[in-house]
UniProtKB/TrEMBL annotation:
Keywords, sorted A to Z: Cell membrane, Membrane, Transmembrane, Transmembrane helix, Transport
SUPFAM superfamilies in the cross-refs: MetI-like (SSF161098)
UniProt topology in membrane: Multi-pass membrane protein
Main location: membrane
Protein location: Cell membrane
Entry annotated with the keyword Membrane: yes
Protein name stated in the entry: ABC transmembrane type-1 domain-containing protein
Domain ABC transmembrane type-1: 63-252
PROSITE patterns: ABC_TM1 (PS50928)
GO aspect biological process, one term: transmembrane transport
Amino acid sequence: MKKRIIYTLLIISGVIVFFPIIYSLIASFMTTKDIMSGKLLPSKIDFINYRELLQNIPILQFFLNSLITSIVAMIFQVIICSLTAYALVFVEFNEKKLVFLLVMGSIFIPWEAIFIPNYFIILKMKLLNTKIGIILPFLANGLGIFLMVQQFKTLNKSLIEAAKIDGCSHGFIYLKIVLPLSKGILSTWGIYSFLNIWNMYLWPLMISTRPDSRTIQIGLKMIKSEEGTNFGVLMAAVVIVIIPSLVVLFLGQSQLQKGMTSGGVKE
């Protein structure tokens, strides 16, 4: 009886959480008239909204721009954050505490405080309307470094010491021992960074002024402005926007769960 109640509550919660997504998918096949009349199902399945979207708005270009910037930023964040965390945990140097304090301090600096300085840096480097300009401020992240430091501290130190005694280099230890044992936190941070960059709006809006350099979130706003009350086309665009997020979450679900619980038990 207890399990039935739990399963029932989980099903109800799942329906509530996924209903907006499911309705967006259904509404993308409906006309504006059907949507405004409150219908939950389309009169007929028609891809006219998607065809109109592809014809009037360069949605595929926006999609590709966001996909490239999100993937590249995710890769660099995982690499740079993990390398920095490895150095802070396994490499001895005099300024270690100072570097860690600087990393911790960067977490508490609000994005709004460095938004304008970052913009002028990109402007001076002549990187406006480029993917590099969008990605550059997000190649590393203080929170990612901190989380990986905490994860690396839980690793079995005897493995690291044994590798050092055998003459293994830091590069070997990092690639062959530390990273394989930290797949959970690496995957978790990769998912987080991908979704964070994918959903950015204000920074790409400031950096990109040409349609060929704009991202999908800006494109979604453009669609809303140009299409006006054509909610069918807007819902079609919403479906395209959320597809990568859902794919990333479903593919990385198991690793995400491991990453959420990693560091809970020390050896």
